[in-house]
Amino acid sequence: MRLRGRKGIRESLEGQTDLVILDPRSHKGQWSALFGNDHPIHVEFGMGKGQFISQMSFKYPDINFIGVDMYDELVRRAGEKARAVWEPAGHETPPNLKLALANINYAEEVFEPGELERIYLNFSDPWPKGKHARRRLTHPRFLDKYRGLLGPLGEIHLKTDSRSLFEFSLNAFADFGLQMKNISLDLHADGINEEHVMTEYETKFTGRGVNIHRCEAIVGAEAMERYQAIRMEKYRL
């Protein structure tokens, strides 16, 4: 991705210490302290312009959200989006949201083992060429990182418009021994659910009639126990 940023972007980010984290490694293992509470922490890796993470933080105030991206221009845009979402409610700074400038390849240097409850992967680069498979965010080398970072209730939530990435991801989850649930090949086939929070790409692609694929992968032991209990009740096993 090539981005043409505005002049002074770094200075702008440096002036937003209330929202933007330019040295996320310094908060490893201390994110709850930074938020000032022990609420669950949900992270979006590759947040783009920040529509999803901003709206999620507003919709779920009892969850702490962290949007991560490696491009400072996208972090800047996400900051604008976050403030636009929260300011009408009287909050200049979102109380449960941080935006971190970081490379996902080094996620284990930013978060302690078990520090996260959920990871969102929304419309990640599909890297369609086979020789680039290791760059896909659902490649086993990344899944191994996520498994270490996620706690007992840990889950990975994936959305993409790329059929090839979705098929690759389902196989990667299965090969990694992860239970999948809520698998959808066309998330909005029956119309858009008002409870569903959409990304910028999702809004655009859905408007064009493109199918959105989605699934959830269970990582944590307690999350698996809950899933099995619900399954047994549903099917009376």
Gyration radius, rounded = 18 Å
Strand content: 15-25%
- Strand runs, count: 8
- Biggest β-sheet strands, sense, barrel: 8 strands, mixed
Task: State the domain count.
Answer: 1
Give the helix tally: 8
In brief, what are we looking at here?
This protein is of the alpha/beta class. It is built from 8 helices and 8 strands.
Note down, in words, how this protein is organized.
By secondary structure, the chain is α/β, with parallel strands linked by helices. It has a single domain, classed as Vaccinia Virus protein VP39 (Rossmann fold, 3-Layer(aba) Sandwich), CATH 3.40.50. Helices cover 34% and strands 20% of the residues. The chain contains eight helices and eight strands, in the order H-E-H-E-H-E-H-E-E-H-E-H-E-H-E-H. An eight-stranded mixed beta sheet has the order 1-4-3-2-5-6-8-7, with helices on both faces. Strand 3, helix 4 and strand 4 form a beta-alpha-beta unit. The protein is globular, with a radius of gyration of 18 Å. The N and C termini lie far apart (48 Å).
Helices and strands in order, then pairings?
Layout: H1 9-14, E1 20-21, H2 31-35, E2 41-45, H3 51-59, E3 64-69, H4 72-86, E4 97-101, E5 116-122, H5 140-149, E6 150-160, H6 163-175, E7 179-184, H7 200-207, E8 213-218, H8 221-235
Parallel strand pairs: 1-4, 2-3, 2-5, 3-4, 5-6
Antiparallel strand pairs: 6-8, 7-8
Helix pairs in contact: 3-4
